[in-house]
Amino acid sequence: TKEIFELIEILSKWYIRRSRERFVNGDLEALNTLYYVLVEISKLLAPFAPFVSESAYLTLTAGELKESVHLEDYPIFESKLLDEDLLKNMNTVREICSLGLNIRDENRIKLRQPLSKAYISIPDKEMLEIVKGELNVKKVEYSKKKVDKKDHITHEMGDIFVTMDLSITKELAEEGMVNEIVRGLQLARKERGCEMGEYVSIRYHSEDKEIIEVIKKHRENLKESIHLKEIKQVDRIDDGKRINVNENFLVIDIVK
């Protein structure tokens, strides 16, 4: 059962998160792959969690397959389906990303704060792009050896490593603030019960001049990315949602 739960963890924490945009865009290959894997997992779990697996199976298949997961044949491992090189590269990428996230955690830099550059020990261009997205850095380069520069931190494990430039420019800091605001507004929409794609208006108040400047500067981008009809600054909000932005905060109120 350990391997089954490892599969579920990798699926939820890696594949689904990495493929979220493909799902939203209706990519049939991504959706069909996810469907297949979820159905197979329900079969794998059937002997160990009969009720949970049955519920998952029936929800997924909607009566299109067998009447019960317990009437299905147990999945058989087929080694011919494995792409060993891809699996090896992806495991290496996940380890590198884990090292990079540890660097962020130890230096108290949130993932929503973009950084300028990272160096990693694998040359594969596709893998470089994955690391770029996972670690939220503007550029990732292959390097044969660790980079020793000011504000650069390296973590390594065996023969793999990642070096990250932790210096944050004014532009990067501003982008990080925008990301924090977007995240806060998205959570507020969810808590308010807004439907996906539903346009709403937002009133906001903050005592922090920098937050106000950033919102005004990125007003149109915020409206587009969070489906806002209007975003309006007001002098006071008595019962609103507080959003922390770095060491400061703003208060918002959603109006449907």
TrEMBL record:
Q: InterPro entries per the record? A: Ile-tRNA-ligase_type2 (IPR023586), M/V/L/I-tRNA-synth_anticd-bd (IPR013155), tRNAsynth_Ia_anticodon-bd (IPR009080)
One GO biological-process annotation of the entry reads: isoleucyl-tRNA aminoacylation
- Keyword Nucleotide-binding in annotation: yes
- Give one GO molecular function term: isoleucine-tRNA ligase activity
Pfam families, per this entry? Answer: Anticodon_1 (PF08264), DUF5915 (PF19302)
Q: Which UniProt keywords apply?
A: Aminoacyl-tRNA synthetase, ATP-binding, Ligase, Nucleotide-binding, Protein biosynthesis
Q: Which domain of life is it from?
A: Bacteria
TM ranges: none
The name under which this protein is listed is Class I tRNA ligase family protein
Source species: Candidatus Dojkabacteria bacterium
Taxonomy, top ranks, is: Bacteria, Candidatus Dojkabacteria
